[in-house]
Amino acid sequence: MISAQRLRSLMILWTVLCLSGVASASNSVGIKHFRFSGFATLGVTKSGDEDLGFHRDLDREGVFDGDWSIAADSLVGVQFDVTVNDQFGGAVQLVGKDRTEDSLENSVEWAFLRYRLNPNWTVRAGRIGYDLFMLSDYRNVGFAYLWTRPPIEFYAPLTFTGFNGGDIAWAGGFGGGTLTGKIAYGNTACTFNILGNLVDIEARNIIAATLSWESDRWQFKLNASDTQVGEKGGFFPGSAPLANILQQVSPIWPEVSRVLDDFYVSNSHIFYYAAGLAYNSNPWQIQAEISRTDPKLNLYPSTLQAYVSAGYKVQAFTPYLMISGGQVQEDAKQAPDAPVLPSAPQISGQLVAIQQGVQSVYDALNTDQTTLTAGMRWDIRYDTALKVQLDHSWVGQKGFSLWDTRNIPTQDKKVYTFSINLNCIF
Q1: Positive or negative CA dihedral for 62, 66, 70, 75?
Q2: What count of other Cβ atoms lies within 10 Å of the Cβ of residue 191?
Q3: What confidence tens digit (pLDDT) does each residue in 194-236 have?
Q4: Quick check: bond before 237 cis, omega within 30?
Q5: What pairs with residue 277 in β-bridges?
Q6: At how many degrees (to 10) do helices 240-249 and 256-263 cross?
Q7: Strand pairing partners for 270?
Q8: Does this model's pTM top 0.85?
């Protein structure tokens, strides 16, 4: 039987070979459009403290102790687009960046074939980017947006950037702009860094719907998705080792049955809803998004994420401000008190350590954070921009899910992140 990972690799390879065949066939049948392009970011980032390490996505290594890092924001990407005729084409995009688990398969962001049924309807199949937010098509293209990186509170939890499957879209004129509706289905997987441990999480049976409208100045988008994570009847991905320990100590600590219920997956659906609005008319660049993650998982809390950004362009320079935040919509979970066994102090100490481990898992999945951002973008030329940005983040003691963690925080945190990015397209 072919494994899911092997099947994904074969699917991507098939798509790449199809596109290569299209390019090779162009000598005999002709090709309407062939384009090679790329983008790159050279970034220097200073962030983190002795407990929390900065990472712009949950699949990256953290930057601790206020150290400088080149890997935190730097990346390079190449894209290959082919249009055979008015109906048939495709694209492949590869992105090289720092990851907790690096591989050629993980570097392939897009690898899809596209067929246009008529001027309004388009079907795609292969590896396709998630269309769940305003920056879906250019999240990795730093030159395409104002800041050094997309706001962490809103975009970092959405580490899944693409899926293997297909979508069908309708687009047409409406109200002086273009109205687009899209439905997508697929599966994907990613390796997350949670409490210093690498956790493989598969997202399957993803169903997503998008409605967007765009004109010369305005952009509006609504998104909704349903994703299944974890196997029903098992434990939440990454929690099985701790759950097994809890099962062993349950005879002397009955209260852990509640924790086991939290770790247990009985209904694995995660619902996600988002809305975004952008206005771009010289000199103003204004953008805002809000989303709600609503998991039907006891361990994973409902969370609200949002940001508002405004920039004002003066010749080649655009100063900007942004406020962003993420907040759980439920009371923080508390691990049950460990029992005290006077006749067995060593065991009592071990139970306290287990209690602390459970609490750290609860806190590591909570988000309680607000960030105030100030920055400046300098458009050096039509294809190159230099950005400088300072972030001041307030992180709750029991809400550090957006950070790599070396030690569990004992109090609320204030963390500064300073970054300089050179972005280009080619």
Answers
A1: positive
A2: 18
A3: 666 677 788 889 999 999 999 999 999 999 999 998 777 788 8
A4: no
A5: 220, 288
A6: 150
A7: 227, 295
A8: yes
CA 310 to chain centre: 22
Output the six-digit token pair for 98: 């720092």
Q: Two tokens at 345?
A: 């102090």
Q: Is the pLDDT of residue 24 over 80?
A: no
Cα→Cα distances 290→153, 190, 277, 378, Å: 11, 24, 9, 28
Token duo for residue 6: 């092997």
**Token pair for 339:** 């029992």
* Residue-by-residue DSSP string for 300-360: S--EEEEEEEEEE-BTTEEEEEEEEEEEESSPPP-PPPPPP-TT-HHHHHHHHHHHHHHHH
Q: Which two tokens stand for residue 44?
A: 């220097």
Tokens of 381: 């030329």
Give the pair of three-digit tokens for residue 63.
């930057």
Task: State the pLDDT confidence band at 192, using cuts at 50, 70 and 90.
Answer: confident
173 burial level (CB within 10 Å; 0-12, 13-18, 19+): exposed
- The CA–CA distances, whole Å, from 317 to 44, 133, 205, 384 equal 20, 26, 44, 13
pLDDT digits (tens, 9 = 90+) for 375-387: 999 999 999 999 9
* List of domains in the chain: 39-74+118-425 (2.40.160)
Q: Residue 252 corresponds to which tokens in the numbers above?
A: 């002397």
Q: Can you spell out the DSSP letters for 243-310?
A: HHHHHHHTTT-TTHHHHHHHHB-S--EEEEEEEEEEEEETTEEEEEEEEEEEES-SSS--EEEEEEEE
Structure tokens at 408: 């569990």
